[in-house]
């Protein structure tokens, strides 16, 4: 039931980090993969494509900024034409630039909501019509445990991730009648470029390792299993949910 053979998955923000691990991990489970990221991330996208093709799966690469509605619509139209269809969407692209709320610039507030909120909306709305037509689809939104409890210097980011969880619940209710499930994954601290920049120091890494029930922080590959669950028939009766994948640093 976890087999994704003959499924096409679109992963945003897939040139590195969690998105790349998801693109490659879902390909390992049989999926062909459309990957997208900002045009400047071409090198990482091409490396991911090579890795996916080495697994014997097909891969299509697109440079698109998900905050640009027409770029998103073009990408989804071209990807659908080339790949045939998009069965699973993983809204993974995101940004985090830490700041105390009192110091936060208007530009940074807008930028976080543009990528982490509006971008999710644009990509989802571009993919939904074909899923509705086929009466089948899986959408996975990468939120964060920050959505559960904001932490200092991440108030704006946490607000965007709470938005992603709320959109997950509403999309689930608005699309379930067409056989589409929409779920969120809330990663804890994952050691990607974003995760390491955010922690800042070896001391902070060690502190959070000690806090975690599993006494380690996450690797991007730790998100693959939950994504396979939400992408496959294993989760056929699960929708509108948000799953913490955090090694036990948050429990609600
Ligand atoms: N790393 C963590 O600890 C952690 C924890 C919780 C949630 N998350 C979430 O997981 C997702 C992936 O994070 P990551 O740690 O791999 O970060 P990352 O910074 O390594 O990767 C994010 C990717 O998104 C892409 N991206 C950014 N803006 C974009 C845009 N406008 N259009 C297209 N692509 C864009 C980036 O180029 C990058 O490749 C994000 O949504 C992040 O908020 C990460």
Tell me about this structure.
The mean pLDDT is 97. Helix 1 (17-28) runs parallel beside helix 2 and helix 1 (17-28) packs across helix 8 (224-231). The chain is globular, with a radius of gyration of 17 Å. It has a single domain (8-244), classed as NAD(P)-binding Rossmann-like Domain (Rossmann fold, 3-Layer(aba) Sandwich), CATH 3.40.50. The chain is built from eight helices and seven strands; from the N terminus they run E-H-E-H-E-H-E-H-E-H-E-H-H-H-E. It has helices at residues 17-28, 42-54, 69-83, 106-134, 155-175, 193-199, 202-211, 224-231, and strands spanning 8-12, 32-37, 59-63, 88-91, 137-142, 180-187, 242-245. It is of the alpha/beta class and 252 residues long. The chain has a seven-stranded parallel beta sheet, sandwiched between helices. It binds nicotinamide-adenine-dinucleotide. Nicotinamide-adenine-dinucleotide (NAD) binds at residues 12-13, 15-19, 37-38, 41, 65-67, 92-96, 115, 119, 142, 144, 187, 189-190, 192-195.
Brief description of this entry?
Belongs to the short-chain dehydrogenases/reductases (SDR) family. This protein is α/β, with parallel strands linked by helices and 252 residues long.
Classify the helix fraction into a percent range: 40-55%
Terminal CA distance: 28 Å
β-strand percent reads 15-25%
SS elements, strand count: 7
CATH architecture: 3-Layer(aba) Sandwich
Average pLDDT works out at 97
Low-confidence stretches: none
Number of domains: 1
| SSE sequence, one letter per element | EHEHEHEHEHEHHHE
